[in-house]
From TrEMBL:
Lineage: Eukaryota, Metazoa, Chordata, Craniata, Vertebrata
GO process annotations (BP): intracellular calcium ion homeostasis
Gene Ontology molecular function terms on file: ATP binding; ATP hydrolysis activity; ATPase-coupled monoatomic cation transmembrane transporter activity; metal ion binding; P-type ion transporter activity; polyamine transmembrane transporter activity
CDD domains: P-type_ATPase_cation
PROSITE patterns noted in UniProt: ATPASE_E1_E2 (PS00154)
Protein name: Cation-transporting ATPase
Amino acid sequence: MGENPAKNHYAQLNQGEENEMEIFGYKTHSCRKALCIAGYILSCGALLLLFYWKPEWDVWANCIRCSLEEADVVLLRTTDEFRIYSRKNVSWISVSALIKSRSDYPATAEEDSVFSKSIMKPSLQVKSIQVQKIRYVWNIYAKQFQKVGALEDHHTCSAIHAKFGSGLTCSEQNVRRVICGPNTIDVPVIPIWKLLIKEVLNPFYVFQLFSVCLWFAEDYMEYATAIIVMSLLSIFLTVYDLRQVRHLTFFHKEDLFLMSGRGFQELESHHLVPGDMLVLKEGKTLLPCDAILISGQCIVNESMLTGESIPVTKTHLPQADNFKPWRMHCAEDYKKHVLFCGTEVMQTKADDRGVVKAVVLRTGFSTAKGDLVRSILYPKPMNFKLYRDALRFLMCLIAFAAIGMIYTVCVFAINGEEAGEVVKKALDVITIAVPPALPAALTTGIIYTQRRLKKKGIFCISPQRINMCGQLNLICFDKTGTLTEDGLDLWGLLPSERNCFQDIHSFPSDCSLPWGPVFRAMVVCHSLIVWEGKIQGDPLDVKMFEATNWVIDDSSGHEIEGQGSTHATVVRPGPKASRAPVKGVIIIHQFPFSSALQRMSVIAQEIDGEQQVFTKGAPEIIAMLCRPETVPSNFESKLLFYTAKGFRVIGLACKSLQPGKQSTNLTREEVESDLTFLGLLIMENRLKRETRPVLEELSAARIRSVMVTGDNIQTAVTVAKNAGMISPTNRVILVEANKIPGSFSASITWKPLEENKTEDYGSLDECQTERRIRLALGSGQYHFAMCGKSYQIVAQHFRPLLPKLLLNGTVFARMSPGQKSSLVEEFQKLDYFVGMCGDGANDCGALKVAHAGISLSEQEASVASPFTSRTSSIACVPELIREGRAALVTSFCMFKYMALYSTIQYLGVLLLYWQLNSFGNYQFLFQDLAITTVIGVTMSFTGAYPKLVPYRPPSQLISPPLLLSVVLNILFSLSMQIFGFVVVQEQPWYSKSDIHSACPSVNNHMENSSSVSSPGLHGMRDGADGQMDNGYKSYENTTVWLLSTINCLIVALVFSKGKPFRQPIYTNYMFILVLIGQLGICLFLVFADIDDLYSKMDLVCTPTTWRISMVIMLAVTLAVSFLVEEAVIENRPLWLLLKKTCRYHSKSHYKRLQRALEQDSAWPPLNETFFSDSVAISVEGNMGGHSNPTFDSSEDAL
């Protein structure tokens, strides 16, 4: 039954966000509810269980559709490919006790607040739902559910200062407190009894519970007890994991008494509400909420969120008097005014207004820290074929079992067995055909892999992604700190005077830098602080400042002309500094570095001197902000010369401010305009030692490497070449996209990057160059490089071209954090399995959306990433892929083994059912516990093969080699068991009625031996002396059981693959010892003549010749099975030949695109420019662009 969204019945929650959902309104119907209750009783709770598994069926059965306004139950459905349903009850919050009269609250609060719009008149109640820890209230006027716990986005900068600058009234605080709930991020540990019920109600555990009950009914106590113990162990492990998550994510409540409200009362942090005004005192403070800084300045440590323990400067929100919402006004720079929950305020600096004030922006789970915690509690489900195939596999086994049930009922009913016995035997077939130990066996493989990764310094918080690592075929790498060293070394300074570059000043140098504008820029243009006696901040800033030999004096307030006393940073010459004509320089105001603007600025003043602006950032951006007459004519060629050598280049600029102008009232745009170009700072960023060998290893394994960085494109290309991402013989094509001024269209240009080198390296013959490039392009040896701005324009205006560009895109430079996440998602849409490896703030989003995100930072932010490496080098990437491949192959081996073990046992039982016989309890127990459980635990010990081969293991269970392997081995087992079953009856010593006919000498002993009682089959008597037997002992039983038991060992050995993804099987000593031990016990059972043992195991004595015949049958089965597995199933060249003969091609989007582009002689275009209108029409038809609403909406809005 599907949903038909009708008017007012349906809406969208969190539209355009990652956790977007559809919401449907329902009203409980009393008659329907009564019928459902009757159904629960009549079905003995089975209907209730079904509704627990399918909440949408529960809602459709109990309720009728209605508008969301009338609804008392809502049904939620995720908008992703999984379409997961959940049911939520609507609750009512009463605020009547807080509002004395109906007009009281709206009169004091702002009319456009969601709080005033959600209070229903005259009942003074608020209708709410809670979804994934976030509370939503019903907006009466907008007729929709809206998030509370956050300040509305529509406020302008001036409105925030005016409305919230002096705090909320007590009545406003109280109402908001009741509606929003407490400001806490609490992850309660689920009580064990609740968890136990939840685990037991899992479909598989329900099946296990059914199996256990059936086994107890059949006196099969031992295995039933073993399964109960294993399940309880699994549950306790789940409790332990949840406690670990709680320890990791719980926000410890500090007794922070922060000033809040108009009366400046002291308040505990959990009482805070959006709109409250905080006064931040001096000293360390752990922030309990997200807040907008409205006066003063703060230095915070955001390592909890970003993974970078670099102090970040936060400036107050400007009092801009316009109609734009504050976020749009600040664009991507808005984070520079926001103090995030869980981050540590290290230092506060008051301005002329006297105190550092902040307005509470978000509380509880709506905060940045809360969002991080929710991403762990509610991870995005991974769509991996293995898990879908596992369910199909179980369905096939259930269908297989159904055939066996029909056969069982027919056989036993025809022979006149009691109805109860027939039902028990038929149900028994299901527990035999579907292995109850399968989930436990698969989990052990993942646990062992996790343990091996931990030993190698790689930690995993999302174990289900380990198998996915085995499929990775594209890895995105951040550059700085990931491929290159964290720290930068100052290599040189290229000063500029009067429109010309001067001689380069190299570092380290004997002669110190002379005093001048460039030196002043290096001294003040940074965001460094002194913390616990050490200079802390961005490594680039630290290196630049240390080169000047000046020191930071951060101890006192300073009188600044026209501004009164303020707490500002002062820099002074150090003991080793060259002589300077000033006592020091005061840094008055900072415009912190913004990745969107690619620059930072400071306003500084020499003690008793004039105020000046200093700006540093990306050279291209700085040059655009400078007066053209101050920029050297050879600026571009010099920049290209140094970036082509892989240097990180920073542009410097300055200007003087007019005297008497209040610096704090200046906007960033006013400050960063009409600058004078000062020169280029050249930093050396060395490759890490491990980078090149790792990238070469990935390339040899046909795993694509892509660089995604915030650095200059030329530097990025050079680093990519030095690292081996781009081969020296390959060509790089620069893709540039630009919006056409004054129109809605855009242009895109392709040009070879080599073309730019002609100015510095001498010109080549144009025809020769073109011919050489075309030759390289024809052989597919080319790479696209583009910057973030071009990527965004291509995504918006040239959508159909994007997949083509991504297919050979290797370098993506000047990428913002949002663009990095979008790029990973676009690669995923091309059916790549994408890994992301990064180390800091800019990578958090991309680490979360990738199939496998690997963080090289051990900070708390890395909890957003499924994998964290203790060593900060990319050597962990091939290690993770190796272990992922081994884990994936282990999962397949385990599936195959479990399928064969259950099928072997199933076939053996069905054969014996033909004679109204079966295996005895101890026979079942030996196969289930002593053989299968031990093999299931030890088979996964095999480690990963050290070499990465240039192909991946299969990603799905339903693959021809795997299916053929299972089917052939089932046929081998069936043939052997039927052969043994039939041939034993042809033996001269065989007697159907006398089980001692083969060994008359043991007859007397057997008569006196005790037999195992069973409620099972009876009526088979010992023909020799009329002694009642338990009904299991027969020659067929002994033959089939011994053959099937040793057959389980054969398939375990045959399926335990070694190379190329796992180490050879002999390296798994534990498994080999177990197999030898089990084989020894089985052969002992075959050849032993111990009466008590045989009696206990329900075996009968057979002649030695027959026992040898059974061993020969098993040896033949082993030889045939092993030969087929090695010569056919594992024969990769054979399968490739079959694919070629059948003209089978991969259905992956990127493979299909590759084949299409190989036939396209016009691709890639070279030295051509396209316009968005023409391209959109010509390519749309055959490419079919992708859409990424999250990226489009969020990026366009800024």
